[in-house]
Amino acid sequence: MKLLEGKTVLVTGASTGIGRAAAVGAAKAGADVVINYHSRDDEAAACVAEIEAAGQRGLAIKGDVAAPETATEFVVKAVEAFGKVDVMVSNAGICPFHSFLDMPVETVQRTVQVNLLGGYFMCQAAANQMVRQGHGGALIAVSSISALVGGEYQTHYTPTKAGLHSLMQSTAIALGKHGIRCNSVLPGTILTEINKDDLADEAKRKYMEARIPLGRLGQAEDLAGPIVFLASDMAAYVTGAALLVDGGAFVNLQ
Ligand code: NAD
Ligand code: RM4
């Protein structure tokens, strides 16, 4: 019996990076998977092909998570296609690195809308569906090590990640009576498109690598196992938790 057999898993922002690795990881664990994506039709189709290659059903639905109606539509279409929603992985996010003193208003607003409000509406829409179904479920927010530490060029971003971490703590309380578990993963520095430009700075990349006890930056696939675990019945008594997946970077202060 595979860990997610019989479950329908939804993942936002899943045409690339951690979301895609989570979607494919869930399919390999036996789930049918519905992905949300923003703009890359080719990458979304490639993700669905990987889900199908794992022997599961896959479906891609385009939409901007910043708009609340995207969440409602995502859940409705997932239920139309596969009958139910068991897991929501709220992953979509942006991090347009920028200095604090001259941060454009629009950049702050967009980052909050996508990362925090997008996650809020996706989790709310999924939770309402899970309550209607009556047999529980799991919400997993892709927060960040940035929920716990600052970043000079991430003053708009780190509060959204702290917000998602906090959202999972509050929803764990609000939804426990419905059997819905709410947890977050806190990735460290994972090599994806979101930080490609930032880590093109050789000095910064070497500094980040040197801080990591496990000796390397993360890969998107490093998040698949922790997300599948939190989605699965192996984590039946885990709610309100936050799982660092950072190669030990956070604890490596001295
Ligand atoms: P990524 O850029 O590959 O993935 C982000 C995904 O979100 C992309 O597919 C993008 O299209 C999608 N997206 C962006 N705006 C969207 C919108 N408005 N609507 C729908 N989708 C949207 O980078 P990633 O590293 O895989 O990022 C995934 C998540 O992981 C993000 O929330 C990010 O904050 C978080 N995270 C990443 C790292 C890291 O080091 N890479 C560390 C901690 C947390
Ligand atoms: C993460 C963390 C990483 C950064 C990404 C964009 O939360 O801060 O170091 O590369 O965001």
UniProtKB/TrEMBL annotation:
Q: In which pathway does it act?
A: Carbohydrate degradation; L-rhamnose degradation
So what EC number does this one have?
Answer: 1.1.1.378
Record-level GO BP terms = fatty acid biosynthetic process; rhamnose catabolic process
Q: Does the UniProt entry include the keyword Cell membrane? A: no
Q: Which reaction does it catalyse?
A: L-rhamnofuranose + NADP(+) = L-rhamnono-1,4-lactone + NADPH + H(+); L-rhamnofuranose + NAD(+) = L-rhamnono-1,4-lactone + NADH + H(+)
InterPro entries linked = NAD(P)-bd_dom_sf (IPR036291), SDR_fam (IPR002347)
Q: Does the keyword NADP apply?
A: yes
Question: What keywords are annotated for this sequence in UniProt?
Answer: NADP, Oxidoreductase, Rhamnose metabolism
GO function terms (MF aspect): oxidoreductase activity, acting on the CH-OH group of donors, NAD or NADP as acceptor; quinone binding
> What family is it from?
Belongs to the short-chain dehydrogenases/reductases (SDR) family.
Write the protein's name: L-rhamnose 1-dehydrogenase (NAD(P)(+))
